[in-house]
What we know:
The chain is of the alpha+beta class. About 35% of the residues lie in helices and about 15% in strands. It has helices at about 55-75, 85-100, 105-120, 125, 135-140, 150-160, 175-195, 265-280, 310-315; strands at about 15-20, 25-30, 80-85, 200-205, 210, 215-220, 235-245, 245-250, 260-265, 280-285. The strands form two sheets. Strands 3, 4, 6, 7, 8 and 9 form a six-stranded mixed beta sheet that branches. β1 and β2 form a beta hairpin. α1 crosses α2 (about 85-100), α2 runs antiparallel to α7 and α3 (about 105-120) packs across α7 (about 175-195). It is globular and about 60 Å long.
Amino acid sequence: MYVSRWQSAGASSRLIRMTDIDTHETELRNPDSLANAPWFYRISGDDVDSEDVPDLWFEIHMSRVENDAKRWLAALDDLPNGRLLDRELITDLAVFVGLQSQRTVRRRQGELDIDSGIRRFGAREVIGSPEVLPRVCVATGRRYDPARHDALADEIAAELLSRPLVSSAENGAQARAIESTIGLWRNSVVPHLLIQRSWWLYSTNIPLATCDEPVIYLGATQGRDSPEAYALGSAPLLAFPIGPNRLLILAGAAYHPAQPFELDDSDTAAVNFEVAAAAMRYVYERDGSDIARNITVPRRPAFDPQKAETFWESVHPPTRWSPGAGPDWPLQRWSLA
């Protein structure tokens, strides 16, 4: 549904150009055949009762969201550039954009790495690490107090360990990853997008692309090599292309996007570069465009979480960038308020 918005209106061909950003191999594809991984949302495990937990219930639920999202995105097509103020529409869009940020191959691998890391290092050690505990406190509605670090870690670890999992089986990792994704989407991502972000619509004169990681993190004040630059809570700007000539920007509280709300050619080219850099593998664009084949970004380094010495290292694969590499983040004219 989302990628089909890049089909050429009124043209004889309704295909989408798909380009492997690492090899630059490119081909035209039917939108229905893109980003299609068999059984990606199947909930199964030796201890999962299919009568209690239908194996594809999350996929069915997402299809309902997508059906509604057609209407929400169509509503954006009729709105002028500038700040979105319709809270009902923003609430609906937060559900869809939040889902798009969580349902990707990279996010799934991240959830599997977390699951593996917890089993490898132990829940108490993971939760008690200085990098993790303050974040877990925020996620669970607690105030982090360094003087109570150990007590908070014990309390939260006991609470989490007492919760039943959808599966505890060795072959239930995907089921646990899906369960974690659902909880994060509902309890953290959507509230963050609603409460801590302002929403802005931009148009472009030249085409935009999108990719298999369509919610783009713009780090602005952080180095491209920092994993923090690509975290939902810390990236100052999120970009979400909604069509070849329309872009949603979700800005953090310290940022106030300014006019003009029509991106010039250099701004649009910079955003397309970020789309290519964000891609796990594939960039999608309208037939007749030649965006991805003219962009080169570093390959993602090989990463083996089992070789990490700490949990934190095991769940933070390196970015495409070495320290100091890469161009400035785009849209630098959006300065701190």
